Inverse folding.
């Protein structure tokens, strides 16, 4: 009651679940205020602790200390990090894909003119993992002199976040 997290959708006469909190995870600051709430469609799924700390308190976490991989080509380096050392059953975490583009480079985002290819991320894994839709940062308008098409691009350092849930 003090935190204001009781499930007000359940009425006393409807179920034995009256007067319990919404199923989820809550972050409380040092003054006792709920600063972030994490809910999933499947109430059994919970965010991992590092994920909640990064998203809820906006604190930097060194992704290199977790499972990660790196690849590169001329002008671009790609880092992918799972914000977990180990993903437990029914746990939700995130894969952070970071593109580091050289100063003169950009990649395309939405919306994209016909004939061009937008940036995409596809995550795959072993049985028992479900991947959500990648979450991209906002694009920036970009104009190429002599071309009438309007482009929206990413440049510099681009962080793309892919939700992942262990289903077993």
């Amino acid at each position: 009651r003090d935190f204001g997290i009781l499930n007000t959708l359940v009425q006393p006469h409807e179920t034995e679940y009256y007067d319990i909190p919404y199923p989820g995870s809550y972050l409380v600051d040092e003054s006792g205020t709920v600063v972030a709430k994490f809910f999933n469609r499947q109430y059994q799924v919970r965010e991992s602790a590092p994920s909640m700390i990064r998203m809820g308190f906006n604190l930097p976490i060194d992704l290199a200390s977790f499972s990660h991989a790196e690849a590169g080509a001329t002008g671009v380096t790609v880092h992918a990090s799972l914000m977990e050392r180990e993903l437990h059953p029914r746990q939700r975490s995130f894969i952070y894909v970071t593109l580091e583009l050289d100063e003169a480079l950009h990649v395309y985002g939405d919306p994209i003119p016909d004939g061009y290819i937008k940036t995409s991320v596809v995550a795959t894994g072993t049985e028992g993992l479900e991947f959500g839709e990648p979450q991209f940062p906002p694009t920036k308008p970009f104009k190429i002199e002599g071309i009438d098409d309007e482009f929206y691009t990413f440049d510099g350092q681009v962080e793309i976040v892919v939700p992942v849930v262990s289903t077993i």
